Amino acid sequence: RRRQPAEPGMILLLDAGNTRLKWAWLAEGPARHTVHASPHHDLTALEQTCRITPPRRVLGASVTSSERNAAIMAAVGRPVEWLVPAASCAGVTNAYRDPDRLGADRWAQMIGAHHEQPGDQVLVSAGTALTIDCLDREGRFWGGTIAPGLGLLRHSLAEGTARLGLPDGNWQEYPDNSADAIFSGCLNALTAPIEAQVARFGSQLGRPVRLTLAGGDASLLAQHLAIDGTIVDNLVLSGLAHLARMSC
């Protein structure tokens, strides 16, 4: 059965990450939008969709290269309003010394998290990079950290050593082989700072904080964290959806 095209004149939302592009048409009301994903080297599906139903407006958050951004705009067939973080917007206050230097994906995620499940929270995005951001219930972003994600950690060991390589391993409490030792060590290097930041932020506020997880490795991290967390998918697109319904 042929898929029905999006309604004419709808708004298109784009999340241009380091490894792929995610996109969705803005859903009406509280409905969840259907999310599609394309590798940056093949935007055929996006191009075909926009040819059938040209969007009246396109909003995007990008952390990828200017060349890829240009390719995305060519596929869409119209200019993209790329998100630039501000000092404050949509009830969220940016603590960065230079607000526009904050990653657009992190800014959109915080706006999405603040409106989807408001409250004190440590927001973790586990993808190519691991970002850990602190957001209080008033919508104030306190600051956050950026570190290599699981894949980058494993590749850095393979590239920086003569014999370790990039073997497939599993997590073990007490690894007894190199493959499991590498995987377990890299995973532990991700979970420890998350647990520490949740404890630190809760202590600073003097009240419990929630842990919110997003990104491709969120489920894996959740299995090995010593604290409970809630996985929320596509927070960047959720933040963009909220911004599309208002103006800052």
Binned strand content: 15-25%
How many β-strand stretches?
12
Characterize the overall form: globular
| Averaged pLDDT | 91
Rg measurement, Å: 19 Å
Sheet having the most strands:
5 strands, mixed
Topology:
Layout: E1 11-16, E2 20-25, E3 36-39, H1 44-52, E4 57-62, H2 66-76, E5 81-82, E6 88-89, E7 92-93, H3 104-116, E8 121-126, E9 129-135, E10 141-148, H4 150-160, H5 178-205, E11 210-214, H6 218-224, E12 230-231, H7 235-244
Parallel strand pairs: 1-4, 4-5, 8-11, 11-12
Antiparallel strand pairs: 1-2, 2-3, 6-7, 8-9, 9-10
Helix pairs in contact: 3-7, 4-5
Any overview of this molecule?
- This protein is of the alpha/beta class and 248 residues long.
- 36% of the residues lie in helices and 23% in strands.
- The protein is built from seven helices and twelve strands.
- The chain has helices spanning 44-52, 66-76, 104-116, 150-160, 178-205, 218-224, 235-244, and strands at residues 11-16, 20-25, 36-39, 57-62, 81-82, 88-89, 92-93, 121-126, 129-135, 141-148, 210-214, 230-231.
- The strands form three sheets. A five-stranded mixed sheet has the order 3-2-1-4-5, with helices on both faces.
- β9 (129-135) and β10 (141-148) form a beta hairpin.
- The longest helix is centred in the C-terminal third of the chain and has 28 residues, at 178-205.
